[in-house]
Amino acid sequence: MITNDEPNQVFENEVLLTVDSFGERFLIENRENSLFRCIRPNYVEFVFTRQVFDYRMFMTNLYTFNELISTEKYPRVQEYFATKILQLSFYIDANLMMIENPDSLTTIILKNLLDLSRNDLLVNKVKKMTIRGTDIGNIYVPQWTRLFRRFKSLEYLDISQNLLQNNHDGCIDVWGIEKRLPDYLQVLHLDWNFFTHISKDMLIQLPQSLKILSLNNNEIEIIEICSIGELLPNLIELDLKHNHLSFISPEIFSDCKGDFVLHLEANKLDPANLEDVRRMANKNGFKVVY
């Protein structure tokens, strides 16, 4: 695991390096570093978690990581990426405490996403990605969300707590106008954002491989009538707890089967409507948590 210098979490891994010490393994020539460069790890994690009052060091580490993945300053790193790394995950938690982070932090986060998507040695090795606790939902959302399509092997994506909404920069239902996610994605977290509705088009544009879709702690009031079981045939969990739903059509779940779980806790559903959803669940054999 490669982390920033002052992470906001404690990790237990076989090998734990800061991003600077990882870079030094390829700049400084000695026996220990030579042995390190020969090891083929099963899995590499790049993890950056910001402490509440730390912007300077956090951004410095993100810039260092960007140099590792996007320049020729570290040719041995590029060789290592090409020949030794088989799978990796990328995790950023900027621990957003205000409505806006410094513009420079937003910029380097998006630059890392862009350059990682352009790195042919790494882009198809990324299995898991988390970018959370930022304000990237305030800028160029229709553009940067398209980058996820380049990560062909991505199975898990968490973009929670990023001020994301249904409409951005004049685009209505930006998540429903085109495909933005890779075809084999299995888990998608959009929690703690500002979504107000789920459109049929939004569901159509999600990959049919999706197994878990989580939209808890948003402001969802409306789900357009459609068949979720038909549009997302592999979905086994839909998390809608802590939203503003006052009505939900049971027909939306008419094609959902026995292994499906629907979370509706802490909404504003009428008891009669909730009972109708529960009857549909009993009929089809799936589970409703409320």
From TrEMBL:
<protein>
    <submittedName>
        <fullName>Uncharacterized protein</fullName>
    </submittedName>
</protein>
<dbReference type="InterPro" id="IPR003591">
    <property type="entry name" value="Leu-rich_rpt_typical-subtyp"/>
</dbReference>
<dbReference type="InterPro" id="IPR001611">
    <property type="entry name" value="Leu-rich_rpt"/>
</dbReference>
<keyword id="KW-0732">Signal</keyword>
<dbReference type="InterPro" id="IPR050328">
    <property type="entry name" value="Dev_Immune_Receptor"/>
</dbReference>
<dbReference type="Pfam" id="PF00560">
    <property type="entry name" value="LRR_1"/>
</dbReference>
